[in-house]
Amino acid sequence: MSLKQIARLAGTSVSTVSRVLNQPEHNCNEPGLAEKIWKIARDMNYLPNSSARNLRMGTADESSPFTADVFLTRFDSMDTDPFFQELFQHIKEELISQHCLLGELLYSADLAMSGAVDSVPGAVPYRSSESIRRETPINSPALVARKHNTGLVILGKCPEPLVPALRKRYDCLVGIDRNPTDYLYDEVFCDGSSAAVKAVEYLISLGHRHIAYIGDCTFEARYIGYYQALLNHKIPLNYQNVYPSRQTMEEGFDIMRSLLHSGKELPSAIFCANDSTAVGVLNALKKHRKRGYMPSVISIDNIEASEKTSPMLTTINIPKKEMAHLALNLLLDRKRGFHQETVRMELPCRLIERESCR
């Protein structure tokens, strides 16, 4: 399979195919074209680096290179959260450098649990976009056998009941998240609670005491860190300052707009659980200006958009590139049988001071 053949099947130029497969950060002008090219390359077992064709891993399938599927657990689209979108780009870069293939991109809707699979050895409940369209009725899970020579990168918090099924399907698992699991699988994480404490304590160091929180509140480490930082400084938690959300830019905008028009006492500072939410908050503050009011805003992630806001967003950096690098190396290390125990690797978070806090 050559670049020319992929270009013909994708209906584009060879140069575009080359840029997509060899420069994971490249964005196509045509929506969906990059995903189409990757799918064709994946289906044909094409490796961007021709020397990688000599790479063979494992004993189950000696004729194909190692492949990594990616499972996004929180959202139904990679576009919903730029943090995971940027993390995914780093994963693609790492796969290329390690001469591995990118497999399927899965979302929570693609995976289903069913007790019926216990009677089918080697099969687990699994629903791909294609199988969903074929199924009758639509809620009947398709039974698919184990994928050999394939690992899974889990982005975000995986539902614990799903883990045994994933182990049946994949040779090896690795997770990347802001919160660790109870050693369910190998993982690389940057502790969300520690990041939240660092963010809120920075606001407190600037003299803030009336600090709002916008983000997930359901067993969420960043919410726990917010509360812990207030507790450490003997600041009472006021639940009227807590605004639950799914941590999207749209919800950040809507919550801030509602708060500005609520008539309530406005907080002097706002801690957002992620940068996407904070970007929405800053957009709302800009569009619905309130004379004399500009709270300090801080968040977590350090996505590219955080440097393009006005004012530029103060945030806690999560080292996405390093997390992707270590996660894939853990996946390959387990595939090769070099470690048996569950490995947990924690990376530090760092404060990035910009203009949005004062």
Could you describe the 3D structure shown?
This protein has 358 residues and is of the alpha/beta class. 35% of the residues lie in helices and 18% in strands. It is built from eleven helices and 14 strands. The chain has a six-stranded parallel sheet with strand order 2-1-5-6-7-13. A six-stranded mixed sheet has the order 9-8-10-11-12-14, sandwiched between helices. α9 packs across α10. It is globular, with a radius of gyration of 22 Å.
Secondary structure elements and pairings:
Elements: H1 3-10, H2 14-22, H3 33-43, E1 67-72, H4 82-97, E2 101-107, E3 123-126, H5 129-134, E4 142-145, E5 150-155, H6 163-169, E6 172-177, E7 186-189, H7 192-205, E8 211-215, H8 221-232, E9 242-244, H9 249-260, E10 269-272, H10 275-287, E11 296-301, E12 314-317, H11 320-335, E13 344-346, E14 350-352
Parallel strand pairs: 1-2, 1-5, 5-6, 6-7, 7-13, 8-9, 8-10, 10-11, 11-12
Antiparallel strand pairs: 3-4, 12-14
Helix pairs in contact: 1-2, 1-3, 4-11, 7-8, 9-10
SSE order in H/E notation?
Answer: HHHEHEEHEEHEEHEHEHEHEEHEE
Structure class: alpha/beta
Question: What percent strand?
Answer: 15-25%
Radius of gyration: 22 Å
Adjacency order of strands in the biggest sheet? 2-1-5-6-7-13
What is the overall shape? Answer: globular
Largest sheet: 6 strands, parallel
Q: What count of helical segments does DSSP give? A: 11
Number of strands: 14
Report low-confidence residues grouped into runs of 5 or more: 49-62, 113-144
Instruction: Give the CA-CA distance, first to last residue.
Output: 56 Å
The overall pLDDT average reads 84
Could you estimate the helical fraction of the residues in percent? 25-40%
